[in-house]
Amino acid sequence: MTIKAPTLNIGGLGADPLTQRINEKQEKWTYKIAVLSGKGGVGKSTVAVNIAAALAKKGYFVGILDADIHGPNVAKMLGVDRAEVLAEKMEDGRFEMIPPMNDFLGQTTPIKVMSMGFLVPDDQPIIWRGALVTKAIKQLLGDVKWGSLDFMIVDFPPGTGDEILTVTQTLKLDAAVIVTTPQEVALLDTGKAVNMMKKMEVPYVAVVENMSYLICPHCGNEIDIFGKGGGKKLAEKEGVDFLGEIPIDLKAREASDAGIPIVLYEDTVAAKAFMKIVDKLVEKLEAMKGEKEAPDESKEE
Ligand SMILES: Nc1ncnc2c1ncn2[C@@H]1O[C@H](COP(=O)(O)OP(=O)(O)OP(=O)(O)O)[C@@H](O)[C@H]1O
């Protein structure tokens, strides 16, 4: 006797409705960029927020998703941490969240921000295992009214965990920006993150070195607190691009605590460094897109 096999419901392989919604939404995002680090505390969120703000300052429409579920700081760094998240009822009866926005008094195009930090009280830790974290991140992608975007920036959790694999697969990333400090221990973990993104065939993988040096507020000399040149060497060794160095800037820390990305303080060394990094990134992505869209002349005859 034969019976009909039960239907398997394997989440995350492309068939579930949430993944389908993410796929529909990401059709409207020109570039999807993940910002990640092998190690915590290297300034990953600072880099993600400043890349987003630099792009918005250039006039692009930008969304940023804080997928760092365990330490969601992006909303605070963009000054929208006290925003109330409203939801809209969709035709199929579901609700979609409307991302809060900030345009820094007209200095940027409005940046759409979504974070788990909006949905849990400030002092409550999120104690979830991998599968739940993945589901939460996917909901913040698929159940939010993101609309059309030039750039979707995703601030990933630190490390090289399971949830990073799943979200990278779901998102079909265009680029991964991996943040490190010049310090040996950070570089070791950064190498792992670079290799993870290469293995997952993310088309463009690049390294940014943060906290590269401190400009002494007294004598103006550069002090290499965490060593020198490690990020560049690592990028060369792994055969990926090096986008640039960002100094430790006391203003950067103050600005991020006040909810204003340092990149909006145009005269600072950190702002100039961020703008250069973003220029390089945009140039590279547009060149890659151009190559992809150009007709393959070798096939013409
Ligand atoms: N270039 C910089 N100059 C001065 N302060 C910085 C710089 N980069 C980051 N910081 C500060 O260092 C702290 C940690 O930065 P951030 O939260 O961006 O790190 P992270 O890697 O995202 O951390 P986590 O792993 O906890 O998510 C923050 O207080 C931030 O303001």
TrEMBL record:
Q: Name one GO molecular function term.
A: ATP-dependent FeS chaperone activity
Keywords of the record, alphabetical order, are:
ATP-binding, Hydrolase, Iron, Iron-sulfur, Metal-binding, Nucleotide-binding
- List this protein's GO terms for biological process: iron-sulfur cluster assembly
Regions annotated as coiled coil: none
Tell me which Pfam families the record gives.
ParA
Q: Where are the transmembrane segments?
A: none
Can you tell which superkingdom this protein's organism belongs to?
A: Archaea
Q: Which PROSITE patterns match?
A: MRP
Please tell me where ATP binds in this chain: G38, K39, G40, G41, V42, G43, K44, S45
Briefly state the protein's biological role: Binds and transfers iron-sulfur (Fe-S) clusters to target apoproteins. Can hydrolyze ATP.
Q: Into which family does the record put it?
A: Belongs to the Mrp/NBP35 ATP-binding proteins family.
How does this protein assemble? Homodimer.
Q: What is this protein called?
A: Iron-sulfur cluster carrier protein
State the organism of origin.
Answer: Thermococcus radiotolerans
Higher taxonomy: Archaea, Methanobacteriati, Methanobacteriota, Thermococci, Thermococcales
